[in-house]
From TrEMBL, chain A:
Broad class of where this protein is predominantly found: cytoplasm
Keywords: Cytoplasm, Initiation factor, Protein biosynthesis
Any matching Pfam family: JAB
Function according to Swiss-Prot or TrEMBL: Component of the eukaryotic translation initiation factor 3 (eIF-3) complex, which is involved in protein synthesis of a specialized repertoire of mRNAs and, together with other initiation factors, stimulates binding of mRNA and methionyl-tRNAi to the 40S ribosome. The eIF-3 complex specifically targets and initiates translation of a subset of mRNAs involved in cell proliferation.
InterPro entries associated with the record: eIF3h (IPR027524), eIF3h_C (IPR045810), JAMM/MPN+_dom (IPR000555), JAMM_MPN+_peptidase_M67A (IPR050242), MPN (IPR037518)
Keyword flag Cytoplasm: yes
Subcellular localization(s) per the UniProt record: Cytoplasm
An example Gene Ontology CC term for this record: eukaryotic translation initiation factor 3 complex
Protein family per UniProt: Belongs to the eIF-3 subunit H family.
Source organism phylogeny: Eukaryota, Fungi, Dikarya, Basidiomycota, Agaricomycotina
Subunit-level organization: Component of the eukaryotic translation initiation factor 3 (eIF-3) complex.
GO BP annotations, alphabetical order: formation of cytoplasmic translation initiation complex
Domain MPN, first and last residues per copy: 16-152
Protein name (database record): Eukaryotic translation initiation factor 3 subunit H
UniProtKB/TrEMBL annotation, chain B:
InterPro entries in UniProt: eIF3f, EIF3F/CSN6-like_C, JAMM/MPN+_dom, MPN
Stretches assigned to the MPN domain: 31-164
Lineage: Eukaryota, Fungi, Dikarya, Basidiomycota, Agaricomycotina
UniProtKB keywords: Cytoplasm, Initiation factor, Protein biosynthesis
UniProt source species: Coprinellus micaceus
Pfam families: JAB, MitMem_reg
Keyword check for 4Fe-4S: no
One GO term describing the cellular component: eukaryotic 43S preinitiation complex
Keyword Cytoplasm: yes
Similarity-based family: Belongs to the eIF-3 subunit F family.
Molecular-function GO terms, alphabetical: metallopeptidase activity; translation initiation factor activity; translation initiation factor binding
GO biological process: formation of cytoplasmic translation initiation complex
Protein name: Eukaryotic translation initiation factor 3 subunit F
Function comment: Component of the eukaryotic translation initiation factor 3 (eIF-3) complex, which is involved in protein synthesis of a specialized repertoire of mRNAs and, together with other initiation factors, stimulates binding of mRNA and methionyl-tRNAi to the 40S ribosome. The eIF-3 complex specifically targets and initiates translation of a subset of mRNAs involved in cell proliferation.
Segments of this protein annotated with the region Disordered: 1-29
Length: 340, 300
């Protein structure tokens, strides 16, 4: 029974199990949403280290200028949806949220903020499921589960992303999130139903299966490549701007610091002279009050941008390698002479 | 792509002489269902209480001309006893408003029920939903989950028309409609993922799947198809089977497709492009990694 009753959430999560219903709901919402930032809440329960996600619902799309009003509407939407789901015996405990993304780049500030709030509030800290739209369109439905690493969360709570803090927490973009293994599950009722639908109706000569085979995976086209490259260039551009800002700020800090140091040194010298002349030394004033040394800039933004660049490049690499594979496959299939 | 058991019903499309100045709401002639709606219905059925014979809920979707596209559904509370049937209307309204906020295009098109028997209560509920969807007629999608003995799993759809000398809410005829499964092409891989998962022995599959695996699966299935075609063609050539000219033409069109762009020159330049892209991507990744590490480096 110790396995089943886990009030204090002591058993750490090792897998996330996603129900077929949630899979289809996320795919539908992600495709229909007006922007690529479709997100919603995941509902479920954890049992013996496995987080079973059994339901989900989308949250309304938020417009940029009414963020303040929007968050209240969303909270109300969420509360009333949860109440309604409870009435029809569906799971009603929030265990995380999902986020749609394109080309694998899901690093952004909003995602981090939401997850950080969840990590504080939810049992087991909650998880975020990232659904990659472009991958799914290419024929490989992709779902991945993440949560923030302890080191990043610690730095986030102190809201300190200075260089020193990054070093002491050993943070790079790859250590912001840790991936949790994810499994997809269909319940037996659904399995039998899907099996029935997908099975070829061989008995009747005219009947065909409700699901005809598709070969979109084998498409040789490289339509998405240009966009992917553009995204990389954009991300690199943004990163360069950010780095420029950072180095400007750090130069400013250095300048102010050296000014302050010079002032302190000068005052000490004067005092030494005055002591030698037998006069009372001047008081050492508070340097910090005289010189405003700016705080060290946060490196979080540049960290996230690097993460995005990496993700875009990774998906580009994946596309390139599969298209290589397909090209050779097509050549073998077309029976072209291999003279070289 | 028909869903559900074959039926012998004739689907009559009444093209009655309608008054153009007053376009009457058209009777739907075909229904398509998105997988999400089906999955929600089955999930709701699974979560019913012991006392519930069947579960019902609202269907949301889009109307185009004579076709109704069911896009999603939600569960509605109801109770059936020997004397009466009750549907929680307030709940239905609340849920509709919640759904409407997220996907404003979807409107109420009808209702669903599990199990395959239609009774007086079905007619009463149908009457209620007809008021909700007025002036358009409501549709009923009846999902048989396949748990009753002797009945195949499947989906049937109906629209209703009043019957009797005096129209009464509990009297109506349910007219069957053809129903199909439909989803967007981009969602296809998700459906494949689910059917693949459903057919695996443990009913689970782990993510993420490598692209290569998916390609391999597709190639295998192409291979199987080719074998089938080959067997057929050889059968025809050997005289064992009678050849069908139509099939022959299809095969010619499919297999005779030009592969000219794959000629040597095209292949090589395309190969170089791909390799360059792969090189670039790797370069960018290592630069990003180096940059992240450099930020952590301290002066000795």
């Amino acid at each position: 029974m110790a396995k089943v009753i886990d009030i204090e959430a002591d058993i750490p999560l090792h897998t996330v199990q996603l129900d077929a219903l949630v899979v289809s709901k996320i795919i539908k919402h992600a495709r229909e949403a007006p922007s690529t930032t479709a997100h919603g809440l995941l509902l479920g329960l954890d049992l013996d280290g496995t987080l079973e996600i059994s339901n989900s619902f989308p949250l309304p799309h938020q417009h940029g200028d009414e963020a303040e009003k929007g968050s209240k509407t969303i909270a109300r939407h969420q509360a009333s949806m949860l109440r309604s789901l409870k009435e029809v015996q569906a799971d009603d405990s929030v265990v995380g949220f999902y986020q749609a993304t394109t080309l694998g780049a899901f690093f952004n500030q909003t995602l981090l903020d939401t997850q950080a709030i969840h990590q504080d509030k939810l049992r087991h800290g909650g998880i975020v499921i990232v659904h990659d739209l472009s991958q799914t369109a290419k024929g490989n439905a992709s779902f991945r589960a993440f949560r923030l690493t302890a080191a990043f969360f610690d730095a986030y709570k102190r809201s300190n992303f200075s260089t020193a803090s990054l070093i002491s927490h050993r943070l790079t973009f790859s250590s912001i999130f840790e991936e949790v293994p994810l499994k997809i599950r269909t319940n037996p009722l659904l399995s039998s139903f899907l099996g029935k639908v997908a099975e070829p109706a061989a008995a009747q000569s005219t009947g065909e299966s409700a699901l005809e085979p598709t070969y979109s995976v084998l498409d040789l086209g490289t339509a998405g490549l240009t966009r992917n490259m553009e995204q990389i260039v954009e991300a690199v551009e943004a990163y360069r701007t950010e780095e420029g800002n950072l180095s400007y700020l750090s130069r400013q800090i250095a300048r102010e610091k050296s000014k302050a140091d010079a002032y302190v040194a000068k005052r000490k010298e004067e005092n030494a002279v005055r002591v030698a002349q037998g006069l009372a030394p001047l008081p050492e004033e508070d340097v910090a009050r005289l010189f405003k040394i700016p705080a060290e800039p946060s490196r979080l933004e540049s960290l996230l941008l690097l993460g995005q660049i990496d993700a875009y490049a990774k998906s580009l690499e994946g596309t390139a390698s599969t298209s290589l594979l397909k090209m050779y496959g097509a050549r073998a299939g077309s029976g072209a002479e291999t003279s070289d | 792509m028909p869903l559900g058991p074959p039926s012998s019903a004739i689907h009559i499309h009444s093209q009655g002489a309608s008054d153009p100045s007053q376009p009457a709401p058209r009777t739907p002639t075909s229904i398509t269902i998105h997988p999400v709606a089906l999955l929600s219905i089955l999930d709701h059925y699974l979560r019913r209480t012991d006392s519930q014979e069947r579960v019902i809920g609202t269907l949301l979707g889009v109307r185009n001309d004579n076709e109704i596209e069911v896009r999603s559904s939600f569960a509605v509370l109801h109770s059936e006893t020997d004397e009466q049937v009750a549907v929680d209307m307030e709940y239905h309204r609340t849920m509709y408003e919640l759904h409407h906020k997220v996907s404003p295009k979807e409107v109420i098109v009808g209702w669903y029920s599990t199990g395959s028997n239609l009774n007086t209560y079905s007619a009463l509920i149908q009457n209620f939903y007809s008021q909700e969807t007025a002036p358009h007629p409501a549709i009923l999608v009846s999902v048989n989950a396949g748990v009753e003995e002797g009945k195949e799993a499947g989906v049937t759809a109906y629209t209703s028309s009043p019957v009797g000398v005096y129209p009464k809410p509990e009297n109506c005829v349910f007219i069957p409609l053809p129903v199909e499964l439909r989803f967007h092409d981009a969602e296809r891989s998700g459906v494949d993922l689910l059917t693949g998962t459903a057919s695996s022995p443990s009913s689970t599959s782990s993510q993420p799947v490598a692209d290569v695996e998916i390609i391999e699966r597709s190639l295998h299935s192409v291979d199987n198809m080719l074998d089938r075609v080959l067997a057929y063609v050889q059968g025809v050539l050997a005289g064992g089977k009678e050849g069908d000219a139509a099939i022959g033409r299809y095969l010619m069109d499919t297999l005779g497709a030009a592969t000219e762009d794959l000629e040597k020159g095209g292949f090589n330049s395309s190969l170089q492009d791909t390799l360059t892209i792969s090189y670039l991507a790797n370069l960018v990744r290592s630069q990003a990694e180096v940059s992240a590490r450099l930020a952590l480096a301290t002066a000795p």
